[in-house]
Task: inverse folding
């Protein structure tokens, strides 16, 4: 009996081990990245970040009494000022998001609760609001918002009925095009389907964009024309059957980042449950991502392994440095990775 129990325990241990093993999809050698820590003393809980020409913007979590946005020097990360209170006042925010690919030193913020697109001229002394536009066609909750050009916004929406990428013309004040990926997961899962199985994240550099899926092992690229129409997407129908619980499926990709020459994808390759806290995951929460680097022809050129857990990151197009932070520890600084090495 004791021998039988020992065998059972060993089998469970082996199964657990194999499930936690990462599924690699490239034969490239893994490059270990060593971070340089940049102390940041002003922020409690970062949620996102954005690089302007001369300024580095970090979004703070929604904490009453704390400002939403903190402005630093892009060059040396010297702190300048913070702004943006939570509240119902005319200059307050409720659900603000940084608009990616903001131009020059003009910072754009979209408040999903108010449906307002605001632009600020950023200097060392402060952020001066220069325009405000009401956008009622972007429906909350949305995942990401970014400029493709001066007048074309891209945004993704996630609801139980809709997981899509939209383009919006800020001058005409209307949606131009919609991109939905026909994964067929809903048809296969029936009443067990949850729209989170179709979730994707996107990033763009100007008119080039990449979309990566959480539960589909695929990165999709495409372009946006001057009018805001989507072209050239190379999505391939996946022949997959997912398990009912999200935590029992392999999580592939989260948030990508894009530059003129490359796009960068966060690759997990493990069961989603290992990203979860106790008691869903009893083995220790892990956000130990790899970063796959592709050219825009979708050739993988590098496979990077940061020396920290990460969640969101951004790549400085000028210096080729990657910035992120460890989401599993109390925040006390950014992590900088030099991709030139």
Result:
């Amino acid at each position: 009996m004791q021998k039988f129990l020992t065998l059972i325990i060993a089998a469970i241990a082996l199964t657990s081990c194999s499930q936690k093993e990462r599924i690699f999809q490239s034969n490239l050698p893994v490059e270990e990245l060593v971070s340089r820590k940049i102390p940041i003393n002003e922020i409690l809980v970062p949620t996102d970040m954005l690089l302007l020409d001369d300024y580095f913007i970090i979004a703070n979590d929604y904490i009453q009494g704390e400002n939403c946005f903190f402005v630093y020097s892009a060059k040396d990360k010297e702190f300048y000022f913070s702004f943006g209170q939570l509240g119902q006042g005319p200059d307050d925010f409720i659900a603000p998001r940084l608009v990616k690919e903001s131009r020059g030193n003009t910072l754009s913020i979209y408040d999903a609760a108010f449906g307002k697109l605001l632009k600020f001229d950023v200097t060392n002394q402060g952020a001066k609001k220069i325009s405000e536009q009401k956008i009622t066609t972007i429906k909350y909750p949305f995942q990401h918002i970014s400029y493709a050009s001066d007048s074309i916004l891209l945004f993704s929406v996630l609801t139980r009925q809709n997981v899509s990428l939209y383009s919006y013309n800020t001058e005409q004040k209307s949606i131009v095009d919609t991109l939905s990926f026909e994964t067929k997961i809903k048809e296969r899962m029936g009443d067990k389907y949850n729209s989170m199985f179709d979730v994707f994240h996107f990033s763009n550099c100007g008119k080039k964009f990449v979309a990566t899926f959480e539960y589909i092992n695929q990165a999709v690229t495409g372009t946006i024309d001057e009018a805001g129409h989507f072209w050239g997407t190379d999505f391939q129908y996946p022949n997959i059957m997912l398990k009912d619980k999200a935590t029992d499926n392999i999580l592939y990709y989260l948030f990508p980042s894009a530059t003129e020459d490359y796009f960068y994808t966060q690759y997990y390759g493990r069961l989603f449950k290992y990203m979860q806290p106790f008691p869903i995951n009893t083995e220790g929460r892990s956000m130990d991502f790899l970063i796959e680097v592709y050219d825009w022809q979708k050739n993988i050129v590098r496979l990077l392994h940061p020396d920290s857990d990460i969640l969101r990151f951004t790549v400085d197009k000028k210096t080729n440095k990657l910035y992120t932070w460890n989401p599993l520890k109390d925040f006390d600084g950014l992590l900088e990775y030099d991709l030139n090495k």
